[in-house]
Fold:
Amino acid sequence: MFYWRTTIASDGDACAVDLGFTGRSAGRGSGPYAGLNLGGHVGDDAADVEGNRTALAHEIDLPRERLVLMNQVHGADVVEVDGPWTGEPPAVDGVVTRATDLALAALVADCVPVLLHDARAGVVGAVHAGRPGMLAGIVGRAVAAMRDLGATAVSATVGPSVCGRCYEVPADMAQVAARTSAASAARSWSGTPAIDVAAGVVEQLAEAGVAVQWVPGCSRESGDLYSYRRDGRTGRFAGFVAQRRASA
Ligand SMILES: [Zn+2]
Structure:
């Protein structure tokens, strides 16, 4: 079920943090969604998607309603959440929380999933950062939202996404991205202009004073990840982060 997963052990009174990225193995999806598709509105069977979301929640030892998903819109808005949404999820691309036993998730299929955590301060966040989000500076806004909730030493775990060599774009689009983040300038496998969105996000995190761990992997090159660039019609995998109250 998991492409990569880790736990940051609790330190004194601090909560442990459970975080990771799902893969395609396991899951109920079929056809182009085969595997653990967690994305709604991508054409997959709604009952299969809900079954997969329930399976993920169960695997991280939480009731389904405590797995919090966003209505992602490639924007730059970040909100605080303190429990399951009442009603429809808001149209945001970042969420932060001080709550425990609440998993925040970002859905991706080439975009960059960013998990933010300050275990000692007890604040975590999840961000969906695609090319528009990188250009709009969403990770900087999410880090600021973490600090508004008391985080002082924010760390980021950046998940697998489409790599720069696999993300060929028109030259003018690459130039726009490079003006926002020089680190995003890339070349494709055929030597043409490309964008390394994750490198841009990592540069923005570093500029915000955040310690970065970058999980290896390219979604387009890994069969264990969903990739829109590779497949077009496909599912979504997730980055998730949850604080766990230390058991007595
Ligand atoms: Zn690649």
Remarks:
- The domain at 2-242 is CATH 3.60.140.10 (CNF1/YfiH-like putative cysteine hydrolases).
- The mean pLDDT is 96.
- The chain has one domain: 2-242.
- The chain is about 25% helix and 25% strand.
